[in-house]
Amino acid sequence: MNNNKLTAGAIRERAQETFRNHLKYLSGGDIEAWVNLWHEDGILEFPYGPAGFPEFKQGKADMYEYMLNFPKHFEVQFTELEFHPAVDPELVIAEFKSAGKHRETGNPYNQTYISVVETKDGLITRYRDFWNPLVAIESVGSMNEVVQFSGN
């Protein structure tokens, strides 16, 4: 459903629900459902990715391939979700944490995130993922492993 008949509050709630589902599907390992939250040409950006890590992934097929092995490598639960409402009801600004581990190393993966997510008609069009790459490197065991996971 497009936004023409929705109030700003309803649009904001739909955008936030899309974000909640994003977290639910990732932690549950349902990558197919996760990809279906995205606009066909959606873009996932990594402004603070380490050297060798991709700057972005674009399009459902690219994102599916990128995230497909996430559940095999990481066991995570997302916690402490806090939304910061923006003037634009389709813009989601969220702070949250992950508590989990890397399955192969057993090392903890306890990350803090800030996400800036643009949606349109309930689908993610642009997601800027701000996270600490040092946490990922320590969890996975090396910089090379993080870059390999990224598919770069």
Automatic annotation (TrEMBL):
Transmembrane segment boundaries: none
Protein name per Swiss-Prot or TrEMBL: SnoaL-like domain-containing protein
Protein's organism: Paenibacillus sabinae T27
SUPFAM superfamilies: NTF2-like (SSF54427)
Start and end residues of each SnoaL-like domain: 20-127
Top-level taxon: Bacteria
Any one Pfam family match given in the protein's UniProt record, by short name: SnoaL_2
